[in-house]
Fold each of these.
Amino acid sequence: MEPFYMILSLVFLFIFLTFLFGTRRRKLNLPPSPGRPYPIIGHLHLLKLPLQRSFLSLSKSLGGASIFSLRLGTRLVYVVSSHSVAEECFTKNDVVFANRPEFLFAKHIGYNSSTMVSAAYGDSWRNLRRIGAIEIFSSIRVDSFLSIRKDEIRRLILCLSKNSLQSIVSETLRLYPVVPMLLPHMASKDCMVADYDVPRKTILLVNVWAIHRDPKMWEEPEKFKPERFEKEGEDKKLMSFGMGRRACPGLGLGQRLVTLALGLLVQCFEWERTGEEYVDMTEAAKGITMHKSTSLEAMCRARPIVDKILDASNSCP
């Protein structure tokens, strides 16, 4: 008889939860949703990897909705695929969405959610951010990481500051952001976004991959056109490092390292493909970062300048 009573209890619990969430939905003006959620799993059955493409497909199925709602299990989740709505979330409601959701892995792996990434918004997080900005990401610290200081490198850094190379880096981060979905945010109190109600503890997911390919924001968004960033203000549309109070504190460091690495690879080596076929840019459907499903194979040959750089670095005291 015990299994019977257990099943009966679960049925009553399901009815109670359905009534609770169903009543709440009728009272709130929620964004459109792709159908009624299933018991227990919600809309999880609709999601496939990679998530950014799955979310974009759901957005298109809802008439190109800039924001829509899902039930992932029992948690209410809003997915944003529009730059204007994301900007509203991280400017007008910046403080509200400065929190992170409470996940088990952050509790057990993230030192009880006490790291800069997973900590709740408050005094502790502000102290971590301040320490990180001073001790890790400050200009003095970044400059101290460089070991080669000869004239060739100085001229290289001056060359890297030109808009042409920076435009290539910006266009690469637009088409292939390292993190296609920003780290989840959580509403600390009720608010309004795009004229929709956002209940407290709603999880916010921002599909940067979709925003960076939005034809309303970018001309010919699927094409690689670095010259688009020669226009003033175009770089402010990028969300590769997030937006608002919880934006990545390593933005400056990341941009400088990518630009430096790309400049060195172009300056110091000659590159050739191993075959005549086009490079496969299909992204792998795993992990929170976006990387190629097929590794790039290329042949490189060092230019004469490499010997000069190595000799200069070896002569440093």
Amino acid sequence: MIPLIVLLILTPFLWWYLTLRKHKSLEKIPGPKPKPFIGNSLDLGSSPQASELKVVISKPELIEMILSSNVHITKSHAYDLLIPWLGIGLLISTEVFNSAGNILIEKLSKEVGKESTDIFSYINLYSLDVICGKFKIMQLKTYSWLLFLETSMGYKIDAQKNKNTDYVAAVRGYLDIFMVRMFSAWERFGLLFQLFSKKYPVYKHSLNIMHKFTNGVIIQRREEKSRVQLGLPATEDGIKRKVALLDMLLESESNNVLTNEDIREEIDTFMFEGHDTTTSGISFTILALADNPDVQGKVYQEIRSIMGTDEIITMKHLNDMKYLEMVIKEAQRFYTTVPLIERKLETDCNIGITLTLFLYGLHHSEDYFSDPQKFDPDRFLPENQSTRHKFAYVPFSAGPRNCIVPNYKPDLGVAAILKSYNGIQIQLQSRQEKTN
């Protein structure tokens, strides 16, 4: 009994000693000095982070050192809030890539090189719900979910007849709560969230819908695969489905090494990451074009000169659209779709310190981009890129934990939108119009 009492007394002192050691090691790093127990919460607002040490960097040399490492690949605790949905998939895994990830890399690399894509199966005039010449750019979020639903699982939903599907609504609800928990002092803790938050029932309901949907599609696909092995049509109606990421994973199984849970984690991760970056990339590029009519005109002329009256955008078309590529890169620099990424250091430094790679600060540094608040696609002319540090521009990530298919770019969506408008200029709605 006495040893237990001694242990209980010494434990908080040991914790305090180790915490002081970590804080002591950061004294020489410039920044606001934390106060005992409350850290820098008075500087930041109502989200105390006293127990979590973070060092923010924005120098390309340091960013290269971290992102190129095969050791510093552990994500920060913020990603833990996504584990109930995504599991330990490509986004959260502490391995460079797991077996399912390697399969996705191999298969997706081949798919990206396909010769043509039907632009109207991706996004078209009707999908934007253009009424009286106006549309809300945030509508792209719903339609991109439906697109990635078909790409990842081969499950097609009519975007116009099913604008509020249970699955899409569940994802939206889950992510809304995720953002609240990210900035909450107590809801980020699982037990407190479960016991006291009014949002927990909605969170749990959304999670059940998402997992039930994905699991159901996986089971259906396995049954179709079994039918083919028996010499029967894959589907009862005999209609051949498009090959989706789910099919790639099932076809690549060896001795059933991939369980339904393994596959679900990778499919859900692809849905989350792909939808988010694609929607943001298209939205910010359209915003930049509307705010810079001269640039918009040049992009449209390039699209018309390369495509003519063709309705199908081929990979050759996209590869020839050099100015569009420069515009998209500048939009990703200017708005920085992923403003920061974090790594939890476990070697070469004090264990437990989180390193924040401030990509927005990197992209708006005058050391690498002159007049950084100006939108200028010419920054990405070959001769201008060659003079910059290769890690001065990091749109998503880089190194061994880079996006598994960085070529899943928003070129196609932007080209499709501008081509659909057939030369009609896209303009921003004024703040007064929004208010009225």
